[in-house]
Design goal:
Blueprint (H helix, E strand, L loop, with lengths): L3 H6 L8 H18 L6 E5 L7 H6 L3 E5 L3 H11 L5 E4 L1 H5 L6 E7 L7 H14 E12 L6 H15 L2 H12 L2 H8 L7 H10 L2 E6 L10 E7 L4
Parallel strand pairs: 1-2, 1-4, 2-3, 4-5
Antiparallel strand pairs: 5-7, 6-7
Helix pairs in contact: 7-8
The protein binds S-adenosylmethionine.
S-adenosylmethionine binds next to helix 1.
Length: 233
């Protein structure tokens, strides 16, 4: 296993159980829907993962692009959403070729920690080109330099306790600790950005953005940023 894309393409244990996975994607879909400004909006979910609740997001917008780099995950997305005329599945390569100013909302949730800073910058360049002048970019679940893994564990256990999968979560934590995730986390690592660094990177890439009060998903120690194309660029 070389990188995080391979990891997400494998039969990983990041979700402790089916219930955890289903609840995770329901929560993400609800939060994405909260950012959709109009029922006609064209939405791009950048590195969407399994996107199990994408049909709900598609119901709330005009067209939903699900972009995913892991080929196996992408294959499942194509099979799962083939009957849904409002969903299109794309690779990140396909995304780079999409027409400029064609998207109203881009969401990158729980993605940039897995990218190198250069990959993140490349993604910002692509997204800046794709967004309509009135469009928005939402980057969620950003890890801060000062918050370590124990907070991830506490956030997961609280989520699990609130939704009745605490036992699964405890078993899942042990399997994750013994798995490729742990090895990759120490070998490849996860990228972390401070709030000021994120704002500066957004500005340097043609956006005006800031942190919002509430993170997407279940982890309150991670951050979400909302950005718009800057007028000057
Ligand atoms: C934790 S999942 C997030 C999936 C979904 N956005 C969500 O909120 O559940 C991380 C995603 O990042 C993708 N990923 C991993 N490394 C990446 C990279 N270097 N560039 C782009 N995407 C990457 C994975 O394929 C996976 O879909």
């Amino acid at each position: 296993m070389d990188d995080w894309i391979d990891y997400y393409d494998s039969t990983h244990t990041i979700y402790a159980s089916k219930r955890h996975r289903d609840l995770h994607f329901q929560l993400i879909a609800r939060d994405i829907i909260g950012y959709i400004g109009s029922p006609d909006a064209v939405v791009l979910d950048y590195a969407c993962g399994e996107a199990l609740s994408a049909a709900k997001v598609a119901d709330a917008c005009g067209l939903l692009y699900l972009a995913e780099p892991a080929p196996g995950v992408r294959g499942r997305l194509i099979a799962r959403f083939a009957p849904n005329t409002k969903i299109r599945v794309r690779s990140l390569e396909d995304v780079r070729k999409m027409p400029e100013q064609s998207i109203d909302l881009v969401v990158m949730n729980s993605v940039i920690q897995y990218m190198t800073p250069d990959e993140f910058e490349g993604a910002l360049t692509t997204i800046r080109r794709l967004l309509k002048p009135s469009g928005r970019l939402v980057i969620g679940d950003v890890l801060r330099p000062e918050v370590g893994m124990p907070r991830d564990v506490i956030a997961l256990l609280r989520f699990a306790a609130a939704y009745g999968f605490l036992r699964d979560a405890l078993v899942g934590l042990v399997s994750t600790a013994l798995s490729d995730y742990r090895q990759l986390r120490s070998r490849v690592g996860l990228q972390r950005y401070s709030e000021a660094d994120m704002v500066a990177r957004l500005t340097a890439n043609g956006f005006t953005g800031s942190r919002v009060a509430v993170n997407i998903g279940h982890n309150p120690w991670r951050m979400t940023f909302v950005a718009r194309p800057s007028l000057a660029t």
